[in-house]
Every structure is written in C-alpha cells, then in structure tokens.
Amino acid sequence: MQLYHFFNSSTSYRVRIALALKGVDYQHHGVNIRIDEQASEEHIKLNPAKGVPVLVTDDGQTLTQSMAILDYLECSYPETPLLPDNTLAKARILEVAHIIASDMHPVNNLRILSYLKNELGISEEQKVTWYQHWINEGFTSVEALLTRHGHGSYCFGDKATLADCCLIPQVANALRFGCNLSAFPKVLAVYDHCQLQPAFQRAAPNQQPDFIA
Ligand SMILES: N[C@@H](CCC(=O)N[C@@H](CS)C(=O)NCC(=O)O)C(=O)O
After folding, report:
1. Where in this chain does the record put each GST N-terminal domain (predicted)?
2. What is the pLDDT of residues 33-45, one digit of tens each?
3. Whole-number Å distance between alpha carbons of 194 and 204
4. Measured from the CB, is residue 51 less than 6 Å from ligand 1?
5. Which domain holds residue 24?
6. Does ligand 1 come within 6 angstroms of the Cβ of 100?
C-alpha cells in the first residue's frame, strides 16, 4: 500500500487513523498542499480531482476520495471493523461521519478558502469568520447526535468507529484555526479520549515524516 497524503490534511488523517486501527502498513508519500503539489501534473495523474489522500493498493489500483478509501479498507480488512453489522447502528455512525465529510469539510477546504480570499477578495478576518461559522454549524449537529445516540468513550460506544476517524481530524483542524469548541463537550470528550489511544497518536499530523510545526 502507498499513501499520498499531507500531514495536516483532515481527509488524509481520516485514512491514516483507519490504517492504524486496522494495523495496515503503508509507504508514505508526502504531497505538500501548502505549495499546491496536489495540483501538479504528476499528482493529477493519480487524482484528477487535485486532492489528497490517494491510496495505491498492493495490486496497483489507485483510489481517491477518503470515504471511498475508508470503505475499501473496511471491506478489505474486516478483522478490526469500524462499522457494525447492525443496520441502524451503522446508519447512526454514518450520519456523524457524513456531517463532517459531506457538510463540514467541503466548505472549508483549502481551495474554497483560497478562492474566497484570492478571487472574491475577502479579508483574512472574514475567512476565519467563514471557517468558524461552518465549524459551529457542523459541530452543533454532531453534538446533538452524540447527545441523542452516543455513549461510551468514543462517538458510539467503547470501540473506535468511522465516526471517530472523521471527527478527530476535523476537531484538530478547528483547534488549529483557533475555534472555541467549549459549546461541544461531547465532541471534546471523544477528542481527548482518542488523543490517548496509540492508533490515533500514530496517525496524528505531528507523527508524519514531513511534519512541519
Ligand atoms: N472529498 C475529498 C476531498 C479531498 C481534498 O480536497 N483534500 C484536501 C485536503 S484535506 C485537499 O487536497 N485540498 C487541496 C485543495 O483544496 O486544493 C476526499 O474526501 O478525499
């Protein structure tokens, strides 16, 4: 397996958590999105959508889109499941995962923030306001769902699931952007718990070979 990723990219971090939880080794390839390497000719051959992560499987298949990669890993390495068999329990986990992957991440992705700033001329302060607004909207929904259906030290119970794989990187990014998350105590409790778990620690940005503080 080869993973093309960036240490601070939350979509990459999702996949790294799943790989670590499932105990799957991979070769690291850093793609620095701060200097637009994701838009290089070489990277576009791997991912026409100009993003990270990209997973290249042992038989040479190139996979893009973190949620598709997570599904591939779930089906290929079922020994440590991140989704339960129970249909309703699985849907509950996917609800939280998709608030983050489908509602929150896309509007705050680097290319969106860059477009707002460089093409539409918003200020740095307005950019941060935009970012924090969508973080608050998304985490308000996640907090409500965890309050209704969550239990245990992870989002759902005492084992990590796909919801945790998506939640932890999004919290890490929000904290990096200076968001005040005190209105989301359940989200923060899960984040604090996961920070202590070896698989989550191995997947963290500061453990990646190309990490820059
Ligand atoms: N929906 C895609 C998004 C991939 C993506 O855009 N990743 C971000 C990093 S978190 C990226 O490469 N951004 C570069 C850019 O926006 O130009 C996925 O889940 O894999």
Report:
1. 1-81
2. 999 999 999 999 9
3. 11
4. yes
5. 2-80
6. no
By alpha-carbon position, which residue is closest to atom 6 of ligand 1? 51
Cα 64 to averaged position of ligand 1 atoms, centre (Å)? 10
Q: Pick from 58, 80, 102: which residue ends a domain?
A: 80
The answer, yes or no, to whether any atom of ligand 1 lies below 6 A from the CB of 65, is: yes
Residue that is written with structure tokens 């935009």 in the block: 130
What is the domain count for the chain?
2
- pLDDT confidence tier of residue 200, bands split at 50, 70 and 90: very high
Within 8 A by CB and 6+ apart from 187, the residues are 139, 142, 143, 146, 167, 171, 181
| pLDDT per position as a tens digit, 83-137 | 999 999 999 999 999 999 999 999 999 999 999 999 999 999 999 999 999 999 9
In ligand 1, the atom with minimum distance to the C-alpha of 110 is 16
